[in-house]
Write the structure tokens for this entry.
Amino acid sequence: MANAADEKAMITENLTDIGLDGSSISRCIDMLENGIYSDLEKFLSIYRRELLDSVHEYNRRIDCLDYFTYRLKQRR
């Protein structure tokens, strides 16, 4: 069974992988250690929504780029 340090390292790595900065990671770990799961879930839900909004924005930009290149090809 993993000890507490290993678990904290795994959690930190996972939070890093999802793109959180050091301050946000510390905040999440504090919420975990204090058993404030509802606040942690809310924080992560908000972060997920922000990531999804970014995906949508980049998708819109790609659509605009595709349309622009399509129009360029039509001009030839």
User: Anything to note?
Assistant: The mean pLDDT is 95. The radius of gyration is 20 Å. The helical segments are 4-17, 22-33, 37-75. Residues 4-75 form one domain.
